[in-house]
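Notes from hallway chat w/ T.B., transcribed later so I don't forget. T.B. wanted the structure written out for a chain they're using in a teaching module, and asked if we could keep both sequence and structure tokens in one place. Agreed to drop them here.
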Amino acid sequence: MEHGGDYRTLWQDLGLDLEAHDNLLQTLGQAYQEIFLAQPNRPRAMEYFDFVVSEIHGLRVRELVEAKEQGRKIVAGFCVFVPEEVVLAAGGVLIGLCGGAEVGFDRAEQYLPRATCPLVKSFFGFKLARLCPYIELADLVVGETTCDGKKKAYEAFGELVPMHVMELPQMKAEPDRALWRAELERFTARIEELTGTAVTAEALRDAVGVVNAKREALNRLNRLRAAEPAPISGLDALLVHQISFYDDPVRFTEKLNALCDELEERIRRGEGVAPAGTPRILVAGSPMAIPNWKVPFVVERCGGVVVGEESCVGSRNCRDLVDPSADSRAGLLDALCERQLRIECACFTPNRERLDTVARMAADLGAHGVIHYNLSFCTPYAAESFRVVRALADRHQPVLRLETDYSQDLGQIRNRVEAFLEMIGAG
């Protein structure tokens, strides 16, 4: 990747393996060129998001270093259940840590079983290979017990970084709600201790406004993708969602709304990234962390267009807003709790609401088919995939169950996606 400045001293100060890091950026830069920049008819406003990716280990890292020099704390998380609002209210910065590349897996397997979700092995591998500046910048890393693989990995990861783990309930009855509300209080106290700043009602309400605005912009993008022809590729829309976990939230919201303005104009002109009648695909299931772009890349190279993601890196992260009307800190934390427990993560049981959401999204976005994407060894989503197939069969919606990891198995995926698109076309 090309950078706007020389960051080698910065990376060296953070303890990165410079030679390996150079190789990583070169590989990702080549992939980005082939996957994203080679797309025809991209919206002009995507130039900002291309710039963010080109500087994701450069200018953004420098911004965070400057924030630390100003006394702000950097908090890193792996999940949408880590409340950005609380971190912002205490003057901190929340950054995403999920890895979407097969990096340092051999080192990670010294701590983790080989049959571990690649997302878990990826963040472990990035740390052990000294390739992630965000891990090195973090004053606190926050985990959550969304799955057994993560929660056991955090035990070992906590030997390497300062950790705080939030206990997420597995059901949504009143006792579970009380548990999560207590966890939000415990997290808030930990952030106050870390930053030395009290989370007041006023600061929390302001932070809720900032994060709600970001979610509203993402929801606006998601709604515009219902247009026919699709005004933006699934690759570019996924990239925007991925960047939402890294970029400054106010700046990101401004740039995303500018993109949405352009998409609205495209829709008025009847202009799309693919011709009208192109098979429209909804991807549901496991999250796709940057730089995991494999599924939409294959779908769109095979002649389809991805019009939505029912995923934590997609609609599940932004669909609901936090009610900002409470006049106390406790009331705002109550509202945050309510919002988060509407998230339909596969860790919850029962999770019938997610089946309804997938079906509704497919209908609202005009999807001709659904790909249920599952990361290898991710039992919760693998188990739910059978129920998703049955629920969509009742609505005569074609579904392809696709399980993969972070390896370059593009040929195998391409064969299955091509057959699925042909079936949709024949139907």
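Follow-up for T.B.: The mean pLDDT is 96. Might be a good example for the class.
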